């Protein structure tokens, strides 16, 4: 069932709900964020009980936003519209939408500031724990590095698409950027060792990956190889 969660880092105008869709790619489940003006960010799966929990958790739903169009974030949109009459629309004027491609080409984050409190809704660009897949062929490593550079300018709580609230979005962005660069170095080393296919690189660089996530590691490797090709390194 949907969980209603709390954190001392949350502004009092944000409610945190977690959809009942845990898994290797969704961690504990998709985080749905409800603002006190009736804005929902990432309704999550098309799970009627979850959508009803969103409706019951706060004011009437007026507006729906999403950080990217992966099914675990948007499958519930049509049903939520049918239940509430809400519309997919632009953010309220106290939320700034940032284009943050990389995980996917359509990924965005939302910076919200009100009553002296500021947070960033990071979607899957920055997860609450671990690193996000670069979802080749739509995802792009170069774009992702640029997006992390942008988010490193926001030393405020990060409210991710999956996992716990981040105390410092900027610190998380810096860590992820360093991690991505380290992975690129490992891919270069694998190629020098004789790896000739994405599968070969996965076997070397992601040898300890959960078998359930091997496909995601291969997506990221393909994106890494494409990025290195743009640098004329392949």
Automatic annotation (TrEMBL):
SUPFAM superfamilies: Metallo-hydrolase/oxidoreductase. Pfam families: Lactamase_B, WHD_BLACT. Residues 29-162 form the Metallo-beta-lactamase domain. InterPro entries: LACTB2_WH (IPR041516), Metallo-B-lactamas (IPR001279), RibonucZ/Hydroxyglut_hydro (IPR036866), Sec-metab_biosynth-thioest (IPR050662), WH-like_DNA-bd_sf (IPR036388). This is MBL fold metallo-hydrolase. It comes from Catellatospora coxensis. The lineage of its organism: Bacteria, Bacillati, Actinomycetota, Actinomycetes, Micromonosporales.
């Amino acid at each position: 069932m949907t969980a209603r969660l709390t954190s001392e880092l949350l502004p009092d105008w944000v409610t945190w709900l977690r959809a009942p869709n845990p898994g290797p790619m969704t961690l504990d489940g998709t985080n749905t964020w409800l603002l006190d003006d009736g804005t929902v960010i990432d309704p999550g799966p098309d799970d009627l009980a979850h959508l009803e929990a969103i409706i019951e958790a706060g004011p009437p739903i007026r507006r729906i936003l999403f950080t990217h169009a992966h099914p675990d974030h948007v499958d519930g949109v049509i049903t939520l519209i049918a239940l509430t009459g809400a519309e997919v629309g632009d953010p309220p004027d106290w939320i700034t939408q940032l284009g943050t491609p990389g995980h996917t080409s359509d990924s965005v984050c939302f910076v919200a500031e009100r009553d002296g409190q500021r947070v960033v809704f990071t979607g899957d660009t920055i997860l609450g724990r671990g690193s996000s897949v670069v979802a080749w062929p739509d995802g792009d490593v170069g774009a992702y590095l640029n997006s992390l550079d942008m988010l490193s300018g926001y030393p405020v709580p990060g409210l991710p698409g999956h996992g716990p609230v981040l105390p410092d979005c900027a610190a998380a962005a810096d860590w992820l950027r360093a991690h991505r660069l380290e992975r690129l170095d490992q891919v270069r080393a694998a190629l020098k060792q004789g790896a000739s296919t994405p599968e070969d690189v996965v076997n070397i660089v992601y040898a300890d990956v959960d078998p359930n996530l091997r496909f995601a590691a291969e997506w990221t490797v393909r994106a890494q190889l494409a990025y290195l090709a743009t640098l004329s390194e392949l």
